[in-house]
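Below is how a single chain appears once it has passed through the pipeline. First comes the sequence as given, then the structure the pipeline wrote out for it. We keep one example in the README because the format questions we get most often are answered faster by looking than by reading.
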Amino acid sequence: MAEPPPEPAELGTIKALANPIRQRILDHLREGPATSTTLAKALGITTGGTSYNLRVLAEHGLVEEVPELARGRERWWRPVPVDLRFAPMSRRDDDMRAALAELEHGFLVADLELFERFRATRDDMGPWGDAMPYSRGEIRVTLEELARFFEEYIDLVKRYSRRAGEGPPDARTVHTRFLGFPDPAPPPDD
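Resulting structure:
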C-alpha cells in the first residue's frame, strides 16, 4: 500500500524554491554533486551567492551535503529527492497564492525553454531524439478518483527515479510533467 502524501509545503519552502538562482542551482545539482565553487563557475554567480543559496535550500530540506566527497573545508552538495505538495487553492492565504503563482510561472517558463532546447537538438540525439511519449486525453472522475489517479502517477514516477550516476549505463534523465485540470465549462446533464 502506498504511503500517505506528505503535508503541504510551507510558505518559506515555496519562497526558497521560487528563487530563480536556486532553481538553477537545483537543476545543476541534478546532473551530479557539486561544490559552491563549481556551481559559481558553471552558473556565473559568486561563490558567496552560491554558498548562501545552498544554505537556504538546505534549511528547507531541498539539498544536502555529501560528506563522503568532502576534503578539508570543501563541501559537496546534492539535491534531496522530495515529494513537494502544495495546499489546495481554497486553503491558501494571499502570501501563499502569490508565492505559488511565482513558482508555477517560473516552472512553466523553464519547462517551455527546456522543451525548446530538446526540439532544437533532437536530430543530434540518435534514438533518444525519438523518445518522447506524448499523450493528451481526458478522464471523467470524481475528486476522490482524481486524487487517487495522481497518487498512482507519483508512485510510478518514484519507481523509476534514480539519482545522477545510478542505474544502467545507458539510462539518461527524461523530464516528466503531469498537469490535470477540470474543464471550466459546466458539466453537461447526463
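The mean pLDDT is 90.

See the next section for the split statistics.
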